[in-house]
User: What shape does this take?
Amino acid sequence: MLTERVAAFIERELLLAPRQKVVVGVSGGPDSLCLLHCLCALGYAPLAAHLDHRLRPHSWRDAQTVLRVARRLGVPAVVQRLQPGSLKDTPGSLEEAARAVRYQFLVEEARRWGTDRIATGHTADDQAETVVMHFLRGAGVSGLGGMRPRTPMDTWSSFETTQDVELVRPLLEIRRDQTVAYCREVGLRPRQDPTNRDTTFRRNRIRHELLPSLATYNPGIVDVLQRTSRVMQEADEWTAGQVRAAVPRVVIAAEPRAVVLQRKAFLAEPAPIQAGLVASAARHLRPGLRDFGFEAVEAFRTFVARAGQGHRIQLPGGLELVDEGDVIRLMRLGEAAVVSGWPQLVSASGERLPVPGRLDLQAGAAIYAGEPEVPPRDVRGAGPGLAVNAWVDASRLSEPLTVRPPRPGDRMRPLGMRGRRKIADVFNSMRIPPPARAMWPVIWSGERVVWLVGLRIGDDFRLESTTREGIRLQLKGLEYLP
Amino acid sequence: MLTERVAAFIERELLLAPRQKVVVGVSGGPDSLCLLHCLCALGYAPLAAHLDHRLRPHSWRDAQTVLRVARRLGVPAVVQRLQPGSLKDTPGSLEEAARAVRYQFLVEEARRWGTDRIATGHTADDQAETVVMHFLRGAGVSGLGGMRPRTPMDTWSSFETTQDVELVRPLLEIRRDQTVAYCREVGLRPRQDPTNRDTTFRRNRIRHELLPSLATYNPGIVDVLQRTSRVMQEADEWTAGQVRAAVPRVVIAAEPRAVVLQRKAFLAEPAPIQAGLVASAARHLRPGLRDFGFEAVEAFRTFVARAGQGHRIQLPGGLELVDEGDVIRLMRLGEAAVVSGWPQLVSASGERLPVPGRLDLQAGAAIYAGEPEVPPRDVRGAGPGLAVNAWVDASRLSEPLTVRPPRPGDRMRPLGMRGRRKIADVFNSMRIPPPARAMWPVIWSGERVVWLVGLRIGDDFRLESTTREGIRLQLKGLEYLP
Assistant: This one.
C-alpha cells in the first residue's frame, strides 16, 4: 500500500526512471530506512549512503544500523566518517555546515556511483514543518511551496557545478508515522532517536511543540499544509514561467556581475512578475542567495518607481542597485573590478596601445587606435552616454600610448575646458558607478590624458583647424551602451 | 503620524475620495473609535453606526460610548438595537448570523446616508489572525491574502443586490496597540472589553494563545503576516486577471444555473488557471459559496482529466459535475427544472402546439411547427447531438399536438426501430443529464410521441415515400447546442 503510493508519486513527479540507480541518504531513522526498503521493493538500484558527522557519542551505531540493513537488503552501502571537530571551522551554524557537508557527500557518491539522482526520506511531516517555518519567517508563494519533489542541487548553493545532480524526495506525501509502521511491518529496526541532524533547535520546537498545538485547531493540519505546499508549488511554477517570458521585455543584459533592466518596462509588469524578476536577478548574481525577502523586493520596486530620487541603494545579499535614468543596474556590491556594460581593463598595471593597434578589454570589448589620417571636418563632442569614437591630433601624441586606470587624484583637462579637473569629478558628473571606475581605461600620452575612454577627450590633444593628421580612437564590442 | 499613515493607505488603495461620506461600523472599542476619529481628522464625512446585538447584558454601554464620542466629534451617529433573541432563528452559528445582520445594517445605513462606502476598523492584528485562520484551515493564494483593503459587499453573500456598496478597511496596516495609543493621545476612552462580536471562540484562541506563541518564533510575526497577505493579494489579483483572460478559451456558456466548459481547453490550462476557473464557475453558480476548497478543485480536475470514467459527481456547495464527452457541465445540484443549453419547458403541465405555430421554451428557445407542405426528398436521420429539425407526416397527426415532459415509464417508438423503448433509456443512450430530463419537451399526438425534441422522431410519424404533406418541426434559439 505504502509502496504503491510511493510508486505513484515517483511516476507522477517523474522522480526516477525504472530501475534507475539512486544514492539514498540514510540516517538510520525510520524515514530513510523506509525509503531504502521501498526503493528496493520497487526495483530501483539504491546505494545507501551514510555520513557520520561524529557530533554525538555512539554515532557509529547509526552507521552500523545502516550497514546492517543494507546488507540484509543486498544493496551496496557507503559510510563516511568526518574528522571530529571538522565542522567547527566552517562559517554559519553547525547545522547548516553539517547539512552542506552531507549533501556534498551525497553528490560525490552519486558521481562515483554513476547516477544523477540522490534521494532523501523527507516526509509530509517534514514538509509541514518546512511550510510552517517559512510561514513564520515570512514567505511568498515560492516559500510556502516548501520542499519540491525534485530539486536540482545547484539551489543548494556553495557547490560550484552540481547542476547535473537532482535531489528527489519520494516520501513527500507519506506521513512520518506511516514510515514507522512500514519499518515495523517489514521487520526493520530503525534507530530510536537517530537525531535527524537536519533538525535545528527551531525545527525541533516546531515539530514537538508548534505542530501539535496547531493540530488542536485542525487535526488534519499536516495534510492541509501538504496540500498548501502543492498548490503553492503549482502557482510558483506557473509564475516562474511567466517571469521567464517577461525577461526579454525587461532585462537588457544579464552578465555574471550585473543585470540591467529597463525602468519603464519593469514598471509596466504586474507586481508578482516584478517580484519574480527581482528575485531572479538577485539569484543570477548570487546563486546561493537565500535571504532576499519581501523588504528587498519592496525596496527594489520602490527604488525603480521613484526615478531620480537617489541614485543607489544597497540590497541584502551583497547587492547594489544603481539608478541610471532609463535603466536600472543591479550589481554585486563592492566588485569594482568587473562591471558589465562599462569598458573595463583586464589589468590595472598599464598596457601599451600601439598606433595603429588594439588593446583588449574585459568581456570581449576592445580599444582600437587607427592609422594617422586626415581627420573628418565635423567632429562633434560627445553627447550624453558613452562616446565610442574619439579623434585626436596625431602630432601631439608622444608614443607609446599607455592605457591604465585612473589613480586617486589623477587629473585631466577635458575637451573645451580651461582648467584641469579630477577624473573622479568627471566620473561623478557622468554618473559612472564607483565599482566601474577602478578598472576604467584611460589612454595616456606621458602623464597627460588623451582619452578618458568613452567619456572625455583630453583638451591637449583636440583637433584644431590646423591639424593635418588625426588618429581615430574607438571603443568596440561593449554589449550594452547606455 | 498614525493619521498620515492612514491617509497614505487610503490614497494608495483608493479607499475614499476626499471628503467622501462613509458609514463607519463603530463597536466602541479602540480600533473603531480610532478609525472614526482619524476619518474626521482627515476631512472625510463619517457616520458612526452601531448595532447593539443585545447578546450580553449592559451592551447598551457600548452604544452610549459610541454616541458620546460621535457627539464630541460632531459627527452623526445611528444606533440600532436588535430584538433580544432575534438572531437565534437564523441558520449557521450565532457569530455568523450576528455578522451578517451587522453588515446588512451598515449597508442599509450607507444607502440611507447616500454613500457607497462603509468602513471598519480591522487592523494588521486582525489581518494576521485572519491569515493564520486561513492557513490552519488550508488556503491557497487567495485565502492567504486575508482581508482586502476594499471588498465589494456582494462577496458577503446572503444579500441580493449589494454590489454598489464597498467595504473599506483603512486601518489594515496599523497595529492594534497603535489604535489604543492613538485613543489615549486624543483623549478618547474606548470600552475596556467591547467584545468584538466578530470574534468567535476560534478567533479568540488564535488572538490570545496562538499568535503570542508564534511571536516566540518570530517577534515580528504580525508584520510578517501583514506582508504575506499583501504579497498574496497581489498574486491573487494578477491570477484573477489571467483567469478572466482564460474564460473565453474554456467556458462555452455561463448561465445562471450551469457553466459549460470545453474539456480539452480546460486541460490545456496550467494548474493555477484551472483552479481559478473552477472557483469562478462555482462562485458563479453559488455566489455565497465559501467552502469550495482544495478537495473540490482537485476532484473537479481529476474528474475532467478522466474522461468517461464515470459521468457525474457531486461537489461541495450543492454543485454537480456532469461529463458530457467533449464538454463538462457544472450545475446546481437538484435543480432539474432549468438546465441551460438543453431545451426546457416553461411548464410541466402540457401545452398546445398549434400547426402552424410556436411554443416558447425557457431561456429564449422555442419549438416551431410549420405549415403542411411537400417535404424535401432527402431527410437525414439525426446524427450525434441535438437535431434542430424534424419532418413528420402531417396526415398521421391528430391535432391538437401537445407538449409536455416525459413521465416515468413513458415509452416511444424511435424512428427506424421496431419495438418501443422507455424514453428514459433514450435519454441514457444520448447521455442527457438527468436534471435536464424532467422538463424536456416531448411533442405528443394523443398518447404517441411525435418528437422527443432534438433527439428522436416517433416512428409512427415518419415520412414515407408516399407522404404528400409533411410538417417541419424546429427547435430554435438554444444558446448552446452540444
Remarks:
- Chain A is about 35% helix and 20% strand.
- The radius of gyration of chain A is 30 Å.
